[in-house]
Amino acid sequence: MTESDPEVYLDISVDNKPIGRIVCRLFRKDAPRATENFYKLCIGEVKSPLNDKGCLSYKGNSFHRVVKNFMIQAGDIVFGTQKDSSLSSVGKGGCSIYANKEEVNTSNDSSCYGNFEDENLGEFLEPFTLGMANLGSPNTNNSQFFITTYAAPHLKGKHSIFGQVIHGKSVVRTVEYCSVDADGVPESDIRISDCGVWEKSMGVPLYNASNDQIGGDIFEEFPDDDTHFGEEDFGKALEAANIIKESGTLLFKKKDYSNALFKYRKSLNYINEYMPEPDVDKERNDQFICLKMKVFLNLSLVLFNLEKYDDSITYATYLLEMDNVPDKDQAKAYYRRGNSYFRKKRLDEALQNYEFCKEKNPNDTIIEQRIEYVVNLIEEKKEKTRKNISKFFS
Prior knowledge:
It is elongated, with a radius of gyration of 27 Å. The N and C termini lie far apart (88 Å). It folds into two domains: 7-202, Cyclophilin (Beta Barrel), CATH 2.40.100.10; 214-389, Serine Threonine Protein Phosphatase 5, Tetratricopeptide repeat. 41% of the residues lie in helices and 15% in strands. Strand 1 (7-14) and strand 2 (17-26) form a beta hairpin. Helix 4 packs parallel to helix 6 and helix 7 runs antiparallel to helix 8. The protein is of the alpha+beta class. It has ten helices and twelve strands. The protein has an eight-stranded antiparallel β-sheet with strand order 5-6-10-9-11-2-1-12. Strands 3-4 form a two-stranded antiparallel ribbon. The protein has helices at 32-43, 101-106, 169-176, 234-253, 257-274, 282-305, 309-320, 327-343, 347-360, 365-393, and strands at residues 7-14, 17-26, 46-47, 55-56, 63-67, 71-74, 94-95, 112-113, 129-132, 145-148, 161-167, 190-197. One of its GO terms (cellular component) is cytosol. This is peptidylprolyl isomerase. Its EC number is 5.2.1.8. It is an enzyme of class 5 (isomerase). It comes from Saccharomyces mikatae IFO 1815.
């Protein structure tokens, strides 16, 4: 990296729903022509030789090829800006800023214009590396590009490396995990909804996760992408999972329930990823399990507040199905599950869970009041039914 390395952003949407922003740092010194091309296509200031109106731009362009554990690819600005995702020619075109109108007008058998030479043909040793997608032969770069999602040593010497994703790795992962057909064509419409020069003051919007660092959560959304500790450093992994959970709790206290939910799910991902087997580290295994119980309870509560009652019931049930759950935590799970059933107007199941809660926490006066209230509602409902039936036969 040098001081002159520009930074650009790509805002991504899936089926017209924004998912977040990818920020890329471009390697101007190592790949000057590729960098200039990508930069100018992001800001959209070069007049298009393809028609008399508009400028060449990645805005509105689709990701037309996605291969899990390898890469995501976009940049066909000839065909890929059309909204018909079934268009068979998407991925067969491209146009760099180096193209001119004469080339476009005289080209007969190609839809790729302004091809330019390879640069920085190094090794793709890390995920989230930007590379130029060529036509399968040297010096045929245009506008198509790809972002690796894993190391790809087999690409050595075949593609120009010109940048790196520095923010929005979870957005790349979201695109990577979208469903595709047998040819790697996404089944969803994945597009660059906006792009341009990025500055820190612009931030990194994220809509399917939370990148709020409240409480010290500096960890990547996906555990595999985080580099703060090794995969067998169970102590630091446990600390990270707890920090993420507490970050969610701080957001919950601010009544930011949606982002609190993202944090709790992220914490659960870290727990599931790093929890050691008991025969490897029994003490850490117990600590991870204890934290997992707390996260299940938090997920049940925040989902209840988001009025996602079925999901709230699910996470309360996950806790109750675990071994050696303390009575106090079981009581909380029964209470939250009962509240969700109550909101769904399933009074009998609500009452049953409240009664289980009382068994685990017999001195709780609030649950006694809750039980009495639901019993009265059930009796009122039965009485109303009896009256309706008696009217029918009178």
